[in-house]
Inverse folding.
């Protein structure tokens, strides 16, 4: 169902730093925003405005995306105007940047460095089909499988393995959804 061009979608966007995105702290508060999306304006323009308003230094909007607050899926231009009004989102790294950041972390051979944060991020992002497919295409599964063979060397083994399994599950299920 296509919306009429004069029919704006009202959404809420909030700052969520629980995933420890590596962004320098701001001197200004990042208050939630109520935004009206206009179908004639690209989504990146809204993201750029949010970055500017929240004084995020790396304000090039291609590095950021909106994600559904409840499902953690990424919002794309293709689905942007199928969003029901009053939906809540949060600003995050784009799926491309999220993949690169997670892969950089996973590719280090310092097994003592692993903690639950990267797997929590991967578990949430893995719920998105586009993220899952690209993660697999960039050989992300090889890094996760390598963790299984080295899991005895990890500091937090009993907490680590369930998160690793959940991350693998989300990636495998959602990358298959595209095929």
């Amino acid at each position: 169902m296509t919306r009429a061009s004069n029919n704006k979608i009202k959404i809420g966007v909030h700052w969520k730093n629980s995933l420890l995105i590596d962004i320098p702290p701001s001197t200004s508060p990042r208050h939630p925003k109520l935004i009206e999306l206009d179908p004639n304006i690209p989504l990146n323009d809204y993201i750029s405005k949010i970055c500017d308003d929240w004084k995020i230094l790396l304000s090039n909007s291609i590095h950021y995306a909106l994600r559904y607050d409840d499902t953690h899926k990424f919002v794309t231009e293709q689905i942007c105007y199928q969003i029901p009004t009053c939906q809540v989102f949060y600003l995050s790294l784009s799926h491309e940047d999220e993949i690169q950041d997670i892969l950089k972390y996973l590719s280090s051979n310092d097994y003592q460095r692993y903690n639950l944060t990267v797997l929590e991020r991967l578990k949430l992002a893995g719920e998105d089909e586009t993220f899952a497919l690209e993660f697999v295409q960039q050989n992300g599964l090889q890094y996760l499988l390598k963790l299984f063979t080295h899991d005895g060397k990890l500091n937090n083994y009993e907490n680590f393995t369930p998160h690793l399994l959940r991350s693998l599950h989300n990636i495998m299920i959602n990358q298959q959804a595209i095929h």
Summary: The first strand starts at residue 9 and ends at 15. Residues 96-178 form one domain. The beta strands are 9-15, 33-37, 64-68, 87-93.
